[in-house]
Amino acid sequence: MCFNMFLYYFIVLFTFVLCYSEEDLGYSLNIGNAIDVFANYGDLSQVTQVISADYEGEESEDSIVPFSEKNIKVFSNVTSKESRGEADGVTSMELMLCETFDDLLDAYFKNFKIEGTDKPWKAFMGDWIHDEIMRTFGIEYDLKPDCCFVLVKLTKMHKTVELGNLQNVGVKDYVMRAIEDLNVTNTADVRKFMKSYGTHYIDSYATGNIIYQVFKYKRRGFDLLRSYIAMRNAGRANSANLRFYFSSYFLKQVGDIRIASGNKTVETWARTNLRDGQYLYSRPSLLRLNYNAVLVHKLNNLMDNGALIGLNLKTLRPLFRDKRKADKYAEIVANDLQLWEINA
Hints:
Keywords: Signal. This is Torso-like protein. It comes from Spodoptera littoralis. The protein is built from ten helices and 13 strands. It is α+β, with helices and mostly antiparallel strands and 344 residues long. It has one domain. A hairpin with a 2-residue loop joins strand 11 and strand 12. It starts with a helix and ends with a helix.
């Protein structure tokens, strides 16, 4: 009896291994390929370089890549469009006003979309404790991370890749066979399919880098900065006065400067060269880049392309020819995502 059970599981495992070839299995960014979001949900940032973080076992910066998650080729003949960033690719400075710490995380991950979830950042960092998350944003741990935050960041775009139209795209034979055998009314069966063939496909992605800094505000200062920005956007305030609203009088804490690729050389350069002098002391501040084109040029030359700065994942609905099966599969994926999001 035990031998028969062993033989059964061996055959199942052997069949699974043969269901797709090594050519169809990848660990880098492959447009159109499928991933199982649940495989690393809550810690996707360990297999995607999206934010500055120190992991044990990292040998060097050369070993860091934007994406190293297992993905499988499920479509047979996809097309894509690629756009390259400009040589002087550092964009203008973004100031993102965040009422809460959750708003800060939403703002940082605004270019990341996972169909079926409202909080993509939880897939990347949901399993992290607050101390770890705050450290990646360069701010000190706070038991009550109350109001308010401003995220300052500059982005360098390397390239964006978007999937073409899927209307006439074929599906790999082994995926079609698995779909034909799939009983979508059995959630256990659907979850086995997810583990084998994924939950989402890569619809688009962007690589490059982001340099960022977080400022924690007192409520009064935050409200004044928000009013000032509204007036500046309406052309009724001088942009040169921006620095005033980042003074110690309004701030609770000035975060460290971080870079999404985790490049420590660039972070050290930024802390040394981007210092803003106020009264009797100076501190690192990305605002220096707002007034110094030479520093922006130097930073552009230093920034590598080692970060994933945007990602759009869509459920595997297009694989299914049967609309009923497609809808049921997407529904189960979305329901599981909502549960994981709540519990993260």
